[in-house]
Design a protein that fits this description.
By secondary structure, the protein is of the alpha/beta class. The protein contains 10 helices and 9 strands. β1 (50-54), α4 and β2 (77-82) form a beta-alpha-beta unit.
Length: 198
């Protein structure tokens, strides 16, 4: 049914590039599950010392286990928000149960701007944004998802491309030691980095 609706709408779009974007946008919608998850998210109780791990892209699922284990080892509770496309790949398959997040929510990429404007996110001790670049909107996640300033002050970023630090004006995250990279190529003492050797 959704495919038929998508193709009907696309037939009305004259431009081939626009048609492709419309097809992708409609194809990524998971309306029923988005509404169900949003209602469920609004009702949860958040324990103190809980970090929300958020991967808004439809990739990087392979990194989630490391992030969740890292924060659990530091003594935090974890909750996870990601996309159905990421969860379909079963990225937590080999994660030991003791490192599993207490709650997992899945939203289509189009819903993340809405999610970041929910007051509920203010209840977390920190928000860990797994990617600074948004592949769906092709811009900074902070800009694309319209993340409010009060939430930005409580965020920790994982940067995948050092060029984005200047491009996306992430200097304040570096100065406040709230930006991490997988490997710190610049050896900047203000940028934390993750290593698998520890």
């Amino acid at each position: 049914m959704r495919k038929r609706i998508r193709e009907t709408i696309c037939a009305l779009v004259p431009n081939k590039n626009a048609k492709s974007k419309v097809r992708h946008y409609i194809g990524a919608l998971h309306l029923y599950s988005d509404i169900k998850n949003a209602l469920s998210f609004q009702r949860i109780n958040i324990n103190p010392n809980t970090i929300m791990v958020i991967e808004p892209n439809e990739c990087h699922g392979e990194c989630l286990c490391s992030y969740l284990k890292y924060f659990k080892d530091l003594g935090f509770n974890t909750h996870l928000i990601t996309t159905p496309s990421v969860m379909k790949l079963k990225p937590l398959f080999e994660l030991p149960k003791k490192y599993f997040p207490e709650k997992i929510f899945q939203f289509s990429p189009q819903q993340f701007p809405f999610i970041f404007n929910l007051k509920k996110l203010e209840d977390y001790s920190h928000i860990f944004l797994c990617s600074t670049h948004n592949y769906f909107y092709d811009k900074s996640n902070i800009e694309a998802l319209n993340i409010p300033l009060n939430l930005q002050q409580n965020m920790i970023l994982m940067e995948h491309d050092l060029r984005h630090i200047k491009k996306y004006k992430e200097d304040s995250f570096v100065q406040n030691k709230k930006l991490f990279v997988i490997t710190n190529f610049e050896n900047d003492k203000n940028i934390g980095y993750v290593t698998t050797n520890s």
